[in-house]
Amino acid sequence: MKISLVSALLVCGYMAFAKANEVCLNETEYDFYMMENLVTDVRKRLASLKENFKEMVNAKCQKTKCPQSSCADDWVSYNGSCYLFETVPARNFEEARAFCKQRESELLYVQDAAENAFIVRMLGRLKSSAHWLLGLTDQGSEGKWKWIDTSAPATFIKWARGQPEGRTRQNCVIYSSSASYHWHDTECTKRYPFICKTVKSTTGRQQHLFVH
User: Fold this and answer.
1) Which fold has domain 76-207?
2) Residue 184, Cβ density class (10 Å: 0-12 exposed, 13-18 middle, ≥19 buried)
3) CA 168, CA 86: separation in Å to the nearest integer?
4) What is the pLDDT along the chain (212 residues), one digit of tens a residue?
5) Which of 14, 63, 103, 155 has the most CB atoms within 10 Å of its CB?
6) φ, ψ for residue 80, nearest 5 deg
7) In the chain, what are the domain boundaries?
8) How far apart are the C-alpha atoms of 185 and 165, rounded to whole Å?
């Protein structure tokens, strides 16, 4: 009798556990289902807003030629170029450069103060990282800073006070929010968010330009 009672309790306990586990799994599946539906709904709403925006622009520009952005999705247009602000995952100098090349672009090179001011404004709006990697390096010759993907010497520089300071240890460059996004030299092996840049072609598609 005692054995039968213990067996019955064990069976009931196992069934209760299995039932609870089933409920847990069902709740988890339901959460994923609701999340998936939410993401789908957001995508539809974004697509709708994008179409409404296009219609609004066309309505405003019926008698004039409206400017058309030729940058791909997720890229930002400025003065004939497209910029991608990439945060996840962070990459070191060579990894970031390879990522940009795969997307037919270059690791950021900055040509003048106006372009740099645009980038700083974007970084201030994003606020997703304290540091951003750009394509400036003196790896080839200490103290001679050049843009890695254009091989052009840097005619525009925006060093923070006391920078560069790393000498042969720090041969790459980042924007630093603690220095109002002025530039700091850093080790090329460290990982940061980074910025890709490409020039827009006259055909309305992005093009990459390498000067070697």
Assistant:
1) Mannose-Binding Protein A; Chain A (3.10.100)
2) buried
3) 27
4) 544 544 554 445 555 555 555 555 566 666 666 677 677 666 656 655 654 555 455 555 554 454 555 798 899 999 999 999 999 899 999 999 999 999 999 999 999 999 999 999 999 998 888 999 999 999 988 889 999 988 888 999 999 999 998 778 999 999 999 999 999 999 999 999 999 999 985 444 454 443 33
5) 103
6) 85, 5
7) 1-67, 76-207
8) 7
